[in-house]
Amino acid sequence: MESPWIIVTGASRGIGLAVARELLRDAAFRVVAVARDEAALKAAFGGSAGVQVVVQDVTDARAGERLAEVCPAAWGLVNNAGLAESAPLKQTDDDLLRRHMELNFYAPMRLTRALVAKGVRRVVNLCSTAALTGYPYVSAYAASKHALLGATRSLAREFAAKGVTFNAVCPGYVRTEMFERTLENIAAKTGLDRAGAESKLAQLSPQGRVFEPGEVAALVRYLLGPQAAGINGQALSIDGGEVAH
């Protein structure tokens, strides 16, 4: 029996790349790796077995239909592609709000709508602890992730009787390229050095640390597997207990 196909968006770097590699480990799954950057996709997956690379802007209105054509027998969808920009309220203009909602909410909703109709049975949405609480200067980001989590919970109930599951993974700060840009922004605005900026963010978690992409990827893999069939409508945080406290 062939391994099931999983579509992973934002797969060329960061959490998306870690998820794709985790799914490919031991040939447990096959992966449709989706991203806008063709060079980055080829660098990440060139020659890899069990991978189909698709260059696609997921904010395109037809992205879902195209992915359904490319992989009509997909078992799972991991909506990972996302945007995180920070700004105080006076600089949170309509364009900033639209950018976040378009990539973090509308795009995964369109993909989900198209692909569940074609037989996808597992949907995992990469949210954030920002979907569970609030942080200063990221109201646009937090709002878009709250929206995606709300949709995850609603769809889980809508499709439960059909055996389709929807879950959200909500990590705290994860050591990715996006995290490095966050450190640079903090350092530029506060005068802290890189180590000081990282320490400031690490202290948000009771464990006092930043999380690794592999930790997120392992949970995503579990949620896509047969042993997770009864997990539905959940927001699973990887934050060392931050939200619980």
Q: How many domains? A: 2
Annotated CATH homologous superfamily of the largest domain = NAD(P)-binding Rossmann-like Domain
Let me know the average pLDDT: 96
Tally of individual helices: 8
- Specify the CATH class of the largest domain: Alpha Beta
Largest sheet: 7 strands, parallel
| Beta-strand proportion | 15-25%
Number of strands: 7
Radius of gyration in whole Å, from Cα? Answer: 17 Å
Describe the structure.
The protein has 245 residues and is of the alpha/beta class. It has two domains: 5-172 and 212-238, 3-Layer(aba) Sandwich (Rossmann fold), CATH 3.40.50; 175-210, no CATH class. Helix content is 43%, strand content 16%. The protein has eight helices and seven strands. Strands 3-2-1-4-5-6-7 form a seven-stranded parallel sheet, with helices on both faces. Strand 1 (5-9), helix 1 and strand 2 form a beta-alpha-beta unit. Helix 3 (63-70) packs parallel to helix 4 (94-116), helix 4 (94-116) runs parallel beside helix 5 and helix 6 packs across helix 7. The longest helix is centred in the middle third of the chain and has 23 residues, at 94-116. The chain is globular and about 55 Å long. The mean pLDDT is 96.
